[in-house]
Amino acid sequence: MSSCVSVCDYIFPPREQDNIKPDAEYNIANPMIQPILLATRKSNGGDKGLYSQRGDHTFTFSVLSHAGDWSSNSLKGARFAIQANNPLRVVGLSGLPTGNSGNTLDETKSFCSVSPDNVLVTAFKKKDGDSNNVIVRMYDILGGTGTYDSTLNFFFDASSTRKTNIIEEYSAEGSLPTLASDKRSVTIDVGHHSIETIALQPSSSPAGGDGGGGCFIATVAE
To answer: Does residue 136 register a pLDDT over 90?
Structure first.
């Protein structure tokens, strides 16, 4: 079972003034952490009652410690959570040139980066039904008032950029993304707590010496 629900609980260190002391094995009887969520579902049968999620449930935990409270470390925690839930998956391909002269990408390279820090990238993939475009989805985690500019950098040359809605349909509303002169970054208006989706069309020109030009992104189905 996989869940996209984020759970944040406060766990405190043992303090004598609170009369909270570990035992001989340094265990605490009732630590303040409860990260497991289970839901009760209602049947689609109309008059049917509630039922529990039977069967075996497997949970994977990633724990991050930090100073201060949640609000002062929300960006760090959010990035850590997304990285833990979405590990990079590597796909091996056969039949490719083995020498550097025939390859078009550097051995190491970042897919993309985004600024400012309160904007997080949640998807970087092929556009559904359109292998010529790459979809990048990002959102603002902190909120605030008004709109501001967010810049997305990517490792390939783009020939065009367009905004889409969340189901990847091209949108005529709002301002168009501004493609930089180097064709490797785009600037877009982001509102508070908004989810923004951009379609990038990689350039079909041959790659240069720095690994620019076209790109290859594989979609893995499970």
So the answer is: yes
